[in-house]
User: What shape does this take?
Amino acid sequence: MTARAAGWRWQLREAARDLTPGVALALAFLVAVAVVGLLAPWIAPYGEGQILTNESFEPPSAALWLGSDYLGRDVLSRLIYGVRVTLFLALVITFLSFLAGVTLGFLSAAHGGRTDMAMSRLNDAMLSFPALMLALIVINSLGSSFPVLICTIAFIDMTRVFRVARALASDIMVMDYVEAAVVRGEGKAWIIWHEVLPNALTPLAAEFGIRFTYAILFISALSFLGLGVQPPQSDLGVMVKENMQALLYGAYTTLYPALGIAAIAVSMNVFVDWLLQRSSAKLPDEI
Amino acid sequence: MKLTEIIGRRLLIGVATLLFVSVLVFVGTEILPGDVAYAILGRGATPELLQQVRDRLGLDEPLVVRYFVWLTATLSGDLGTSLANGTDISTEIARRGSNTLILALSTAVVAVPLAVALGLLAATRPGGAVDRVISGASLALISFPDFLVAVALVSIFAVQLGWLPAIASIRPSYDLFDWIRVLILPVLALVFTILAHMVRMTRSAVLNVLSSPAIEMAILKGVPRRRLLMRHALPNAIGPIINVIALNLAYIVSGVVVIETLFNFPGLGRYMVEAVTNRDVPIVQACAMIFCSVYVLLNLAADILAVIANPRVRYPK
Assistant: This one.
C-alpha cells in the first residue's frame, strides 16, 4: 500500500514537471470552475432567483458585476449557480456511463466469443441512432427532469464508452502477461481487475475527459432547445437561451454563459490532448 | 467475396438497422406514462373522453398490432395528423423538409470542398506554420457546440455589423437573393460545426497515406512535393476522406435541429422540437423516422463507399 502511494506521488511529481504553460492554465481553470461550482451558495453575491432591479440587461456595475439578465437578476450569481448545475449533471452522467460502459465493455472483451459478438452488435445498433433523436424521443415521452436527463444521456454515453473500453480490453487480453495470468489459473475477475484495468487507465482517463465535455455540450444544447434543465432551475445552456434577446439590446449577457461552456470544453480538450500525448496512449477511433 | 455480394450484405444490414430504428422510435414515443390519449387531452381528461380518444386512435389494440399499422401507414406516406391542431403532417413535412434540405445541401456544398482543401494544406507540411494554425483552430472549434458558434455569429454579423438578419424566417415571396441573405448565417454556423472534424480527419487520412512505403519510394525517386500530394497521396486517401465526409454529413442531422431552432428557420428540426415541447406524438414519430433514416443511410453510404474505394476491405485477413 505504501509502495503504491509512493508510486502515485512520484507519478504526480513527474506529471507536474511535464506541464506546459497552456496545459497548466487549462488545468487551473478547470479546478477554479470546480471550486466555484462546489461553493456556489457561499460565493454568489445574490440568490439564484433574486430579482434585483426592474431593468433588463443593465450594464455591468459595482453592484452587479456582469449586469442584470432579462428578468433583472444578477448575471454573475446565476452564472455561478449555472456552473454548479452543469458540472453536477455532467459529472454524474459521465460517472454513470463509465460505471456501466467500462464494466460491460471489459466483461464483453474478457468473455469473447458469442457473448462479445452479441453485445457488440447490440451496441452498434444503438450507435446507429443519432444521440439527439434518442434524447428528444425520451424527453417527449417522459418529460424533462434531472433523473430523465441523467439516465438518458448516461445511456447514450455508455454506448460510446462501451466501444472504447471493449476495444482497449481486447487489445490487452491478447498480451503475454494476460496469457501468463490465464496459465497461472487466475479467474476472469482477477484478470480484469489486476491486468486490464491498470493498463487501460490512462486512455480511459482521457476518454473520461472527452465524455465529460460531450455531456456538458449535450446538456447545454438540450437546455438551449428548452428541453433540458427546466426553470426555475437553470444551467449555462438555459442562460444562453433566455438571454438571447440581450443581443438585440446591445448587451452581451448571453455571451457569458456561452463563453463559460466553451472555456470549460476547450480546457478539458487541451488537458486530454496533453494526457494522451504524454502517455503516448491511443484511443480507438472516435466517431 | 465479390463486391456486389458485400454491398448486398451491407444493404441488408442497413434495412435491418432501419427496422430496429423504427421499433425504437415507435416504442419510445408510445410508452408514455399514461398514454397518448392523456397527452392529447391533458388536464381536461375525463374517463369518457379518454375512452373516446382511445377508440379513435385504436389505442386499445396491442402494441405490436399498432406498430405494424403505424409502419405500413408510414411506409405508404400517410404520416397522420397533428394532435395539436389536426393539420396533415405529410404536407407540413414536405414544405419544411425542402427548406431543411436546402439548408443541409448548402452546408455540404460549402463545407466539403473547404474541409478537403484545408486538410490537404495542413498535410503538405505537417508541423509547419500553416499546419499548426489549421490544426490549432480546428481543435479549438471542435470544443464549441453548434449553438455557441451560431450565437457568436449572430452577435457579430446581425447585431454589431447589422449586415444579415438574425432570424431566418422564410416568406413565399422570397427570391434567390433573399434566400441567400437569410441562409448565410445558419449555413456558416453549420459549416463551422462539421468543418473541424472533417479537416482533422482529412489531414490524418492524407498523412497516413504519406507514410506508406509507396510514397517513400516516390520521394526517393524525386517526385516533386505537389505532384506527390495530388497524384500519389490524394487518390489513395480519397476512400477514407469520402468516408469522413459521409459521417460528418450525418452529423448535420443533429446540427440542423439546434440551428433551425436558434434562427427560427421553418424546417424539420424546429418542427420536431416544437412537437416535443407540445408532446405531439405523431409529428415526433414522423420527424424522428426521417432524421434517423437519413442518418442511417448516410452511414450506410459511408460504409459502401469505403468498400468500393479500398479493395483491401473486401479481403479480410
Summary: Chain B is about 80% helix and 0% strand. The longest helix of chain B spans residues 225-263. The CA atoms of residues 272 and 284 of chain B lie 6 Å apart.
